[in-house]
Amino acid sequence: MNTITNLFEMFKNVINELNNFWNVYNEIITTCNTIGSYTFKDVYYKIPIDSHVYVEVEVDPLNPLNCPKFNLHGLPASIEKFQERLNEINPYLIWSTDNSFKENILNVFQITTLQLQYEEEDPEHYIASQNDLNCCYICYDQLDTAIKKQTKLCINEKCDALYHMSCICEWLLNSGSTPMFEHLQGKCPQCEEDMLVALENFDLIKT
After folding, report:
1. Which helix (H) or strand (E) holds 25?
2. How far apart are CA 186 and CA 172, in angstroms?
3. Which residues have CB under 8 Å from 87's CB, separation 6+?
4. From the record, what ranges are coiled-coil (predicted)?
5. CA–CA gap between residue 107 and residue 85 (Å, rounded)
6. Is the distance from CB of 160 to CB of 76 less than 8 angstroms?
7. Does the pTM exceed 0.90?
8. C-alpha torsion angle, residues 170, 171, 176, 179 (rounded to 10)
9. How far apart are CA 170 and CA 115, in angstroms?
């Protein structure tokens, strides 16, 4: 009998925790101008914080009131100030359970309002801007595109993002990609197009 009672109490606790998550879910989709459509099972949400930048937030279903994880999307020139902001502060110290989710987003990124919509850059301007920057889209350091093994070109013509091999391999590994036949498969961090990266001459992977 005690076992059944304990299981029932555990079940009630889980339901209570999920109720908090569902409340946060409703708040996000009704107040944060989210990009795309979502269901109760989703934990990732795209929120436009600039006309050409959106932040993808990951909410922990078991701790939905805590500060989420942030992943910025957009051209490096557009997201630079927001990335610098994240690097300068500790979002976990700014995030407050006394504020709404929207208020916390505004405080973290030091903005006064959320964008009504996210607009992709014009493809020609997009590629031209990237060519001018000539930098890795992960670490933002300059790279030598003449050294083929140091860069990986995204196959999406509208993206065409460049990466240091070490940066993109580490990114894919941290995203859960498992090396198979000396390759890593995953998504481009910039446009989420499928990527297949060869690991030859790359010593990050130890077998």
Report:
1. helix 2-31
2. 6
3. none
4. none
5. 11
6. no
7. no
8. -40
9. 32
Q: If one looks up domain 128-206 in CATH, what number appears?
A: 3.30.40.10
Do the Cβ atoms of 47 and 33 come closer than 8 Å?
Answer: yes
d(CA 85, CA 103): 16
Q: Which residue do the tokens 């093994």 mark?
A: 149
Q: What is the pLDDT of residues 24-75, one digit of tens each?
A: 999 999 999 998 888 888 899 999 998 888 899 999 988 899 999 998 887 7
Q: Which residue has the tokens 């939905």?
A: 64
Query: Going along the chain, which residue ranges are E strands?
Result: 44-50, 53-58, 69-73, 183-187, 194-198
- Whether residue 37 contacts residue 28, with contact meaning beta carbons closer than 8 Å, is answered with no
If one counts every other C-beta atom within 10 angstroms of the C-beta of residue 57, the result is 22
CATH for 4-109 is: 3.10.110.20
For 3, the enclosing helix (H) or strand (E) is helix 2-31
The terminus-to-terminus CA distance of the chain in angstroms comes to 51
CB distance 193 to 154 below 8 Å:
yes
Residue spans per domain, the chain: 4-109, 128-206
